[in-house]
Specification:
A hairpin with a 2-residue loop joins strand 11 and strand 12. By secondary structure, the protein is α+β, with helices and mostly antiparallel strands. The protein contains 16 helices and twelve strands. The protein has a six-stranded mixed β-barrel with strand order 2-3-8-5-7-6, surrounded by four helices. A two-stranded antiparallel ribbon has the order 11-12. It is elongated and about 105 Å long.
């Protein structure tokens, strides 16, 4: 507990050098406000990138993974020295796709961690309009399930997403693909599979996700139409896309069901390690930059407190001659540091919020973004204030310790 006398002495020191106190406080304010802004910006960037990535990417994907080892197993079954003659070896044809998608979906739907699930039939095709021929992908989907997972309907620029549910001869294509094919809503496009099957589909609408791979070469149609195009039965699917309530739990979910389901269960972290690594790197950069700013602010406070000790050295000697002990002197100077830290911290938190709001409302067109992404996380403000207090406390402790060791006799003698 700080004594009233020490508190009053600390107050006199602060008010006698208002400019120095303000400079020290501004150092803390700048450090904390930049810490808040940097973390809010980096968190916003990570959030928007995750949102954009998950506009077409599921948290967990179930698919039929073909064996990686295509070597001749018959040759490996013989011991060294045995003469064998294998001619014209061939790899057998494995079953492609998921044959019983409805059963797999029923198993996964019972998990309470699941948010949504959607089967897909993805086909590599050629889109043709007159002489123009473009290689791309058709994705057969159930409109409701697909929209629940990826909010696909929000990316529609022309037409209605749910039209593919009722129109077996229609499809929705990316805006880039429509431009390359020179087609618009209502036109018909010829589609040809790798097996040579050809069929005409009407363009029901256009979609724009800002992802080039989707906008320039992908089309959506009803899942049953896709099955008919490749002559597959009603339970067939090439992929089952799964979204969880917490996408960070995807690895545990995939590991659990990879043992129970006779197909490959893969989390987004395994399939897209670069996305997760990018988020982690941005977080590390933001924390490093923010802590550096706070450290620089701490050095500023240290210098100012050190100057104050040197300027007040005679006052300190007089205080010790009057009976003040070393711990009283430490208490006086630490009190000054903490007051500077609290005042600078409060102003810094407010300034950090104001800067974030200004940036959040400033026009800055990038891809589909109209402003820079900013996230308002309460823990960023709390951590900034806490780090600010710790920095000012440490910056004030060393000068206070130095002041407590002043010998009043030597100072008064000069």
């Amino acid at each position: 507990m700080i004594s009233g006398t020490n508190l009053r002495v600390a107050g006199v020191h602060l008010t006698s050098r208002v400019k120095q106190a303000l400079v020290a406080m501004l150092s803390v304010t700048f450090g904390i406000s930049m810490y808040i802004f940097m973390n809010s910006f980096m968190t916003g960037v990570n959030d928007i990138q995750t949102e954009m990535a998950f506009s077409t990417l599921a948290h967990v994907r179930v698919y039929n993974d073909l064996p990686e080892d295509q070597s001749n197993l018959l040759a490996q079954a013989h011991k060294t020295g045995t003469a064998i003659n294998i001619r014209n070896a061939r790899v057998i044809q494995y079953t492609e796709g998921i044959r019983n998608a409805a059963e797999i979906i029923q198993i996964l739907e019972n998990d309470p961690a699941l948010y949504g699930i959607a089967p897909q039939v993805n086909i590599n095709v050629f889109f043709r309009n007159g002489a123009t021929k473009i290689n791309g992908t058709m994705s057969g989907v159930e409109a409701y399930r697909e929209d629940q997972l990826f909010e696909t309907s929000t990316y529609m620029t022309i037409g209605n997403w749910n039209d593919i549910h009722s129109r077996g001869d229609g499809m929705i294509i990316g805006t880039g693909l429509a431009k390359r094919l020179s087609v618009k809503q209502g036109d018909r496009v010829q589609v040809q599979t790798s097996e040579g099957v050809s069929r005409s589909f009407e363009v029901l609408g256009l979609i724009e996700t800002s992802i080039a791979g989707v906008d320039n070469s992908k089309a959506y149609l009803h899942i049953n139409s896709a099955r008919q195009l490749i002559s597959q039965h009603h339970g067939y699917a090439t992929d089952i896309q799964v979204n969880l309530k917490d996408f960070e739990a995807s690895n545990a979910f995939a590991t659990q069901y990879d043992r129970l389901i006779p197909y490959k269960v893969e989390s987004w972290k395994t399939a897209n390690g670069q996305l997760d690594a990018g988020n982690e790197l941005r977080n590390i950069i933001a924390i490093a930059v923010s802590l550096t700013i706070l450290l620089v602010a701490g050095f500023g406070i240290y210098n100012i407190m050190n100057m104050t000790v040197n300027e007040k050295i005679k006052d300190i000697a007089i205080l010790k001659a009057m009976g003040f002990e070393g711990r009283d002197i430490v208490e006086i100077f630490l009190t000054q540091s903490v007051i500077i830290g609290i005042c600078g911290g409060i102003v810094g938190v407010i300034l950090g919020y104001v800067i974030s709001v200004i940036v959040d409302h400033t026009s800055f067109n990038i891809a589909m973004l109209e402003t820079l992404p900013i996230a308002y996380e309460v823990q960023d403000y709390a951590m900034a204030f806490l780090f600010g207090l710790i920095t000012t406390f440490l910056a004030g402790y060393l000068p206070a310790k130095k002041a407590s060791k002043v010998d009043p006799v030597e100072i008064i003698r000069g």
